[in-house]
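Chapter summary example.
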Amino acid sequence: MEPPSTDRPAPGLLTTRADRGAAVGPITRAVADPPADGVVDDVHGPLPAGVGTRVQSEAVPPATNYLCAFDSPLGPMTLAIAAGEGLPDGGAVVGVWFDGQRHDRAGLADDARPVAAGDPDEPAALAAARAWLEHYFTGDDPGPTPDLAPGGTDFQRRVWDRLRTIPRGQTTTYGHIAADLAAATGRPTSARAVGSAVGRNPVSILVPCHRVLGADGSLTGYAGGPERKAALLRLEGVMIA
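The structure predicted for these 241 residues follows.
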């Protein structure tokens, strides 16, 4: 079974405008590998084309985490960057969330360092993430994402990699993602397990979990809330009621 078409919406989904060429860069590696949180499904096999190297579960040296406030049109956000051995020069994005949303700091060290935009200590990945989001919120396609290194289980990271193949301006469902993963591996994968992994996505917007809908097209399961999910989809040109 092939993944949902990137040329047109899957049957029964929301009407969208034409794909404007969402670029997908690699997730480099995880900074942490937390428990599966009850998700028993696991997936192995090749990644979708264009996603890059799969994040591994191997032990890694401790990284330094940086936190920076970001004012978005949909409310205050926090960006989290990790820097250290084994990560790209300039660090990598490990978290982007709306303040107060569920699972906002899952997997981050308690000693994360606050840093202001433009500080001498600001990692390059932080400046890149801020610029990407500023461009995104103008309604334009901001292009390739900065380097990402979210911490999660092997299954969670594979689902997040799938999310990054959903083009801007299009949507899919939890069930479609589950079917894609099952077809790629020959192992059953439930929509519920996919939904759990999507709900634990630590990098909002850059890993576009807001593009995943319920089977009936409902705006369900977004940690930032259904109103923000609707606003993000409208910003990308998705036609919703």
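To summarize the output: The two ends are 31 Å apart (CA to CA).
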